[in-house]
Amino acid sequence: KEKQQQIRATLDELFQMAAEGADRKKQGIVQRVEDYIAQNYQNPDITVEDIAMSAGLSSNYLRRIFRDQCGYSPMDYLVNYRIETAKELFRDTTHTAKEVAELVGYANTKYFYSLFKKQTGQSTYEYKQSLEQEKKDGKTLEQCNQGMKALEQEE
Questions:
Q1: What 3 state SS string does the chain have?
Q2: pLDDT mean across residues, the chain
Q3: What is the pLDDT of residues 114-145, one digit of tens each?
Q4: pLDDT tens for residues 64-94?
Q5: Contact yes or no for 53/10 (Cβ under 8 A)
């Protein structure tokens, strides 16, 4: 009976190690996909098949692994990556919305506009306006602080 318990414990440990190895392998696949998307998101023709091929997998297997590990599809990740990159470009550059759309991999600007609004809750125009307002508010606050410091120094 003691030997059976030892065997069972050893088997449990082996199964646990195998499961952990499988999880690490899946996490590695997800990381490769994320890296591929980071390097290729500007390509407007990128497909899930391209992404799967880069990871050496079938597109169906990639979808299943990615959804299991992340909770969403590789294409949802690509869309999200593009929109987050677009937001950064709006924040850090003076590009037009059409230019940003092209820079993040959307040849069809109307499609980009609709995706942007769906993802952010704001049109590209509204988003840019909110950034401008934040800049103005930040400058106003900064000017107030400078004014307060000047008053304190006079006293």
A1: CHHHHHHHHHHHHHHHHHHHHHHHHHHHHHHHHHHHHHHHCCCCCCCHHHHHHHHCCCHHHHHHHHHHHHCCCHHHHHHHHHHHHHHHHHHHCCCCHHHHHHHCCCCCHHHHHHHHHHHHCCCHHHHHHHHHHHHHHHHHHHHHHHHHHHHHHHC
A2: 84
A3: 999 999 999 999 999 988 888 777 665 555 55
A4: 988 988 899 999 999 999 999 999 999 987 8
A5: no
